[in-house]
Amino acid sequence: MVARALPPLNALRAFEAAARLGSMSRAAEELHVTHGAVSRQVRLLEDDLGAALFLREGRGLRLTTAGERLREATGTAFDQLQATVRTLRRGAGAGTRVIGCPGSLLARWIIPRLERLHADLPGLRLHLSAQDSDPDPALPGLDAVLLAGAPPWPAGWRVHALGPEQIGPVLSPRHPAFARLAGRPADALLDEAVLHTASRPQAWPQWARSQGLAPDRLRTGTGFEHLYYLLEAAVAGLGIAIAPAPLVAADLGADRLAAPWGFVETGAQWCLCTRTADDPQLDRLAAWLRTELAQGQPI
Question: Same domain for 192 and 254?
């Protein structure tokens, strides 16, 4: 039998992450290695294949024709591998429901409520998986995803609507301008450089329009790759952030953050979306989540 003549797995993983995320730095963050380690693995892969995979354009990356072909192949292969591994893990713990959700929601809203969830739903066993990209409509390896979205939904999904999504500006009482800004109307923010995140660039413009403000008058300050880091910066008093209400509810209750201008509905709904037409365990989870959101969201 002839051995498979494949490049090293680490090189393929580094390439797939960089191609999917469009950044060596973001790939390094996802893989928990240095930027240099990802670059070296990609160079190793290019040497092995005898073809360039990326074109460097300033600080950005663009895939070559060879890179596009390899991205399609590695993306499909890793998706299938991930789905199989999740299925096997789930089989090892029969009865466990695998739920995907954004990492920031998992860290700031779900994990602080896990003890209560286990007490209220003692028969429900969960495996929680951070899913920061748009979910595959087939939900490979998952029983459900928790997300904020709006129709049209993928065919075959059962969507449990949990409550309207609301977003609003938040800042820490430690912010140097807190006393000056807290009592002023929303247009006071046009004089401030606001924190923003690459994962949701439409949030500030959407809020500005809801206040009758022109989005192009907003001044953007420091940007962050993930919402979690954005909110940590806001709690530290480093700037004004914008966030979904559930993710800052605990900070508002503990006076770590304040929301002087309240929250506005985005038109999206928090939803638990499943592939299964009838699953009493997920129905119970949806009802629990709906109650928690209703009790925890400031209006």
Answer: yes
257 with 283, same domain: the answer is no
Angstrom distance (rounded) from CA 268 to CA 265 = 8
State whether 151 and 277 are in the same domain: yes
* Residues 170 and 263 occupy one common structural domain: yes
Tens digits of per-residue pLDDT, 143-166?
A: 999 999 999 999 889 999 999 999
Instruction: Provide the token pair at 81.
Output: 């591998």
- Alpha carbon of 264 to those of 89, 172, 183, 222, 261: distances in Å? 40, 19, 18, 23, 9
Q: List the domain range (segments joined by +) for residue 186.
A: 166-267
* Same domain (yes/no): 244, 276: no
Helix residue ranges, H only, the chain: 9-21, 24-31, 35-49, 65-92, 103-105, 114-120, 178-182, 203-210, 227-235, 245-253, 280-296
Q: How far apart are CA 135 and CA 248, in angstroms?
A: 24
Residues 46 and 104 in one domain: no
Strands (E), 189-279: 193-197, 219-224, 241-244, 264-274
Residue 82 and residue 131 in contact, taking contact as beta carbons nearer than 8 Å: no
The total number of structural domains in the chain stands at 3
Quick check: 278 pLDDT over 90?
no
Whether this prediction's pTM lies above 0.70 is answered by no
Contact 192, 240 (CB under 8 A): yes
Short-list 291, 288, 297, CA closest to 249: 297
